[in-house]
Structure formats: structure tokens, C-alpha cells
UniProtKB/TrEMBL annotation:
GO molecular function, one term: delta(3)-delta(2)-enoyl-CoA isomerase activity
Subcellular location: Peroxisome
Cross-referenced Pfam families: ECH_1 (PF00378)
Major subcellular site: other
Record has Isomerase as a keyword: yes
Keyword field contains Amino-acid biosynthesis: no
CDD domains xref list: crotonase-like
Family: Belongs to the enoyl-CoA hydratase/isomerase family.
Stored Gene3D superfamilies: 2-enoyl-CoA Hydratase, Chain A, domain 1, Lyase 2-enoyl-coa Hydratase, Chain A, domain 2
Name of the protein in question: Enoyl-CoA hydratase
Classification via InterPro entries: ClpP/crotonase-like_dom_sf, ECH/Chromodomain_protein, Enoyl-CoA_hydra/iso, Enoyl-CoA_hydra_C
Keywords: Isomerase, Peroxisome
Length: 254
């Protein structure tokens, strides 16, 4: 079965991470499938809302670390960047149902969702520094803006997880529910939205996002250039090697 499942019902496209044996970590093929699904959802008038979901034990462990080593994104057209531009510019409502860990892009993609529901086991983290990397998905712009600078600095510099209640407090999450209910809650909200006039949803989202789009895309681009360079540098190589060998990284000389 595919690592990304896409299903359309009652105006709602649901995109499901389905790579549980690898904790729903995301390969470049998965980014490509998600970018294509988002583009389809944008073009298809019968799709009015999109929901991302994972499993009740894990949303996503973020980028596949083997892919970071073997297939690092090399151009702006790389699947990960296509996916990120797709969700940042998506004009219809975008929802996420998050239970368990949401690591790296598993968290940063949520800045581009309109509504986020979390299981009480959700653990959000952006451990880019711990991997010798830097933020992506415009999170270096959107996290300080949403959380306040100091809380964003804690999340992005220390890279430690923060949990469902804290995520709700800073405004990343709308509601916390039992993990077994999170996908159903997001679906119910998506169906409510799908029953509303699409032109009003699109216009309201456009007005709320204001003139932000350009700044977000520009920041994504700037981050992407640094990220691409840092993926090939010694600190990241040490972090990825350590993950593969199941040991602690040694950054003492870096
Ligand atoms: N890339 C590739 N493989 C991954 C992965 C990732 N990001 N995250 C987990 N996996 C794999 C593990 O290598 C392991 O594979 P194996 O069974 O072949 O050894 C399997 O998924 C299970 O992972 P494990 O670490 O044993 O699960 P856990 O429940 O103890 O921990 C996480 C779950 C998500 C906390 C942990 O896997 C983790 O921290 N992953 C890395 C997250 C990360 O740094 N992502 C990059 C962000 S930019």
C-alpha cells in the first residue's frame, strides 16, 4: 500500500501518512505525492477542504533521515519545496489532526493549516539545530510571530518537544481531544466547512492571510538555501550518521 493515502468524500480530501513502520517519516516520493494531491485539491472544484492526518500514535517523524543523506533536495522544484509552496499558497481550508509526535516538518507544516486538532499525546518539535540544520517552511518567521520570540527561540534553538496543552496555549492547536478521537473531530470540522459556500471560505482566508504570502514564500526560499547548504555540512552529517547508528551525536568539534 502507498505511504500516502488520498481519499475524497463529501467535498473533503483526506491525506493520510501511512508509513507506520518508519514512524510516518516522509520521503521525497511522499512529498511528491502530497504536492500532487494538494495541486489536485486546488484544481478540483469538488474538493472544498483538505485534511492531513496520521495515526493515533504518531503524526510524523519528519523528513526521512536516509533521504536527507542520500537524496537531499537540490533545487527549488524538489518535492519538499513543491509541497511547502503548495500548502503555503493553498486557497481552500486546510486542517490537520495530530496525535503523537509531530517532528520537524510534522510541526512546521501546521503553520500553514487553518485549523489544527491534537490528541492529548501530541508532542511537537522542531529539532533542526540538533540535526545541524536550520528552520524550514517559513517557521523562522511564523513561529516567533505566533508564539512570541522567546517561546519560539526555546522551540527552535533547544529543539525540545512541547506538548498539546502548550501548543494550544500558543495558538498552534485549536482543541485537544483523546488521540483516538482526533481524526474524527478534524473530519467533523472539515465537513462543516465543506457545507459552507466555498467562495466565502476562500475570500475569508485570503483576507485573513493579508499580504503575507510574499513574505512567507521569500522566507521559505531563504531558509531553503541555508537548509540545502547545511544538509551537506559536517554537523548534519554527524547528526544523520548518529541517528543511523543509534548513538548520540558528537558536536564537540563542530
Ligand atoms: N527518518 C527515517 N527513519 C525514521 C525516522 C526518520 N525521521 N524516524 C523514525 N525512523 C525509523 C527508525 O529508524 C526506526 O527504524 P528501524 O525499526 O528500522 O530501526 C523506526 O522508524 C522506529 O523508530 P524509533 O526511533 O525506534 O521509534 P520511537 O517510537 O522510539 O521514536 C520518534 C519515535 C519519532 C521520537 C523517533 O523515531 C525520532 O526522533 N525520529 C527522528 C525524528 C527526526 O529527527 N526527524 C527529522 C526532523 S527534521
Amino acid at each position: 500500500m502507498s505511504d500516502i493515502l488520498t481519499h475524497i468524500d463529501a467535498g473533503v480530501m483526506t491525506i493520510t501518512f501511512n508509513r507506520l513502520d518508519k514512524k510516518n517519516s516522509i520521503t521525497s516520493d511522499m512529498y511528491a505525492a502530497m504536492a500532487d494531491a494538494v495541486a489536485q485539491a486546488s484544481a478540483d472544484a469538488s474538493v472544498r477542504v483538505v485534511v492531513f492526518q496520521g495515526h493515533e500514535t504518531i503524526f510524523s517523524a519528519g523528513n526521512d533521515i536516509g533521504d536527507f543523506l542520500n537524496k537531499p533536495p537540490s533545487t527549488k522544484e524538489s518535492p519538499v519545496f513543491r509541497f511547502l509552496r503548495g500548502i503555503a499558497g493553498f486557497e481552500k481550508p486546510l486542517l490537520a489532526a495530530v496525535a503523537g509526535p509531530a517532528v520537524g516538518i510534522g510541526t512546521t507544516m501546521l503553520f500553514h493549516c487553518d485549523l489544527v486538532y491534537a490528541g492529548d499525546n501530541a508532542a511537537f518539535s522542531m529539532p533542526f539545530v540538533n540535526l545541524g540544520l536550520c528552520p524550514e517552511a517559513a517557521s523562522s518567521l511564523l513561529a516567533p510571530r505566533m508564539f512570541g520570540y522567546h517561546r519560539a527561540a526555546e522551540a527552535l534553538l533547544l529543539g525540545e518537544p512541547f506538548f498539546a496543552e502548550a501548543a494550544q496555549e500558543v495558538g498552534l492547536v485549536n482543541r485537544v481531544v483523546p488521540p483516538t478521537e482526533v481524526n474524527a473531530v478534524a473530519q467533523a470540522q472539515a465537513r462543516k466547512l465543506a457545507a459552507k459556500p466555498l467562495s466565502s471560505l476562500i475570500e475569508t482566508k485570503r483576507l485573513m492571510k493579508g499580504g503575507d504570502q510574499q513574505a512567507v514564500l521569500q522566507k521559505m526560499d531563504e531558509e531553503g538555501q541555508s537548509f540545502g547548504r547545511m544538509l551537506r555540512e559536517p554537523a548534519a552529517k554527524e547528526a544523520f550518521g548518529a541517528f543511523m547508528e543509534k548513538r548520540k551525536p558528537d558536536f564537540s568539534k563542530l
